[in-house]
Amino acid sequence: MAIFFEEAIKKDISLKKLASTYLLFGEDSFLKKTYCDKLIDLAYDGDPFFNLQKFESDCDLQDVYNAVEQLPMMADSKCVCITDYDFEHAKSSDFERLCEIIESSHDECVLILRFDFIEVDAKRSAKAKKLIGSVEKSGGKPVRLDHKKSQELTKVVCDAATKRGAKMDTATARYLIEVCGNDLSILKNEIETLALFVKGGEITKSDIDNVSVKSIDESIFDLAKNIFSANTSSSFDMLDSLFFMRVEPVVILYALSSAFLDLYRVFAAKKSGKSIQYVADTFGYGNRSFTLDKYPPLLSRVDADKFYLCFEALRNADKALKSTGAEARAVLEQLIVKLIYIIVKGESIDKNSMSDYR
Q1: How far apart, in whole angstroms, are the C-alpha atoms of residue 208 and residue 64?
Q2: What strands lie across the sheet with 141-144, from one edge to the other?
Q3: Cβ-contact 172, 203 below 8 angstroms
Q4: Which residues lie closer than 8 Å to 139 by C-beta, 6 or more apart?
Q5: Side-chain half-sphere CA neighbours of 28 within 13 A
Q6: What's this model's pTM, rounded to 2 decimal places?
Q7: Distance of CA 186 to CAs 39, 118, 258, Å?
Q8: Which tens digit of pLDDT belongs to each residue from 308-341?
Q9: Under a CB-based contact definition with an 8 Å cutoff, are residues 166 and 203 in contact?
Q10: Using CA atoms, how far apart are residues 255 and 153, in angstroms rounded to an integer?
Q11: What is the pLDDT of residues 188-205, one digit of tens each?
């Protein structure tokens, strides 16, 4: 099963030689939209009313079949694009019909399947694997478009700032990625705002702190950092910010638990003489590997026993949120206090189960 990446689709577009079918999936919504639009522009001739048909998730597959089979009107080629068809939850007959449509696509029509919100994971899903196989049978290309790697993304950010009349060095670009995340659509919006803010000057880390909206991951890291620094007031301020951003309590707890897991992995690697890159490679951090670089300074106050107690507190808070009917904010506030107590004292604040959450 062959999976293609960004370079393959860029080459097809530059040569103006398109495959019969493209399946666009992966992490980066900006790249998927960008390349989908470029493919569409190249794929059809003549009047878009006749030669460009777009379908959404609730489409009738018979309409899709008719569109694919219909010859282009007074032109050499046409395009049919389907966005986020939920193949995973479709009836078996509908899924088989979709695969038949893909495999029967012909030279006069370019069929594009774009998945922004539906996951395509051939390792875990038999349907996804078969869908990709159908694209291959048609002579098409399944193209995975994930977030760019840190070094490449830094260059993209710097270039984007330059195009908007501003300056940004690589260290600042990397900081912007850490603060706002690695989604290109979000980063481009932030660069637009920052370029207007500095009015053609140089964008600094201070500008980013004052203007840019932090990603949830970065906000959660700040919360974890304040907890590990035993800074109770700043921890509660960060929790206030997350609630102001309308982040669901269960998402906050999940992300905080993930941050503690990241910290523990770095801690364990350090104890066994392994590098941060080893952690990134072993646990498949991929484009997120740069986030691990921030963790070592936080580990001076913890040991394995403290981590065990922290994970126990996180697990109990998860039970409280999901099963006891406790007020979510109270659960998270008490969790912060308990985690800080463990970091400082090396012991749990209480031995009772969940009675204090009720």
Answers
A1: 46
A2: 52-55, 78-83, 109-114, 21-25, 141-144
A3: yes
A4: 19, 20, 21
A5: 25
A6: 0.57
A7: 23, 20, 22
A8: 999 999 999 988 887 766 688 999 999 999 999 9
A9: yes
A10: 23
A11: 888 998 999 999 899 999
CA distance 203 to 93: 55
40 close to 79: Cβ distance less than 8 angstroms? yes
Helix, strand or coil, per DSSP, at residue 243: helix
Q: Residue 219: which residues within 8 A CB-CB, separation 6 or more? A: 238, 241, 242, 245, 247
Across the strands, what pairs with 53? 80
- Quick one: DSSP state of residue 109? E
166 phi/psi in degrees, rounded to 5: -115, 170
Which of 84, 91, 52, 86 minimizes the C-alpha distance to 68? 52
The continuous run of DSSP H or E covering 25 comes out as strand 21-25
In whole angstroms, how far apart are CA 184 and each of 58, 152, 188, 265, 311?
Answer: 28, 12, 6, 28, 33
- CA dist 214 and 204 (Å) reads 15
CA 112 to chain centre: 22
Query: Which two tokens mark 10?
Result: 């860029």
Using CA atoms, how far apart are residues 189 and 191, in angstroms rounded to an integer? Answer: 5
Query: Which residue type occupies 113?
Result: L
Question: Concatenated DSSP letters for 39-79?
Answer: HHHHH--S-HHHHEEEE-TT--HHHHHHHHHSPPSSSS-EE
- Cβ-contact 150, 290 below 8 angstroms: yes
Contacts of 295 (CB under 8 A, 6+ apart): 262, 263, 266
* Structure-block tokens of residue 292: 């691990």
The Cβ-side half-sphere exposure at 269, using a 13 Å CA radius, reads: 20
* More reliable by pLDDT, 187 or 40: 40
138 — phi, psi (to 5°)?
A: -80, -5
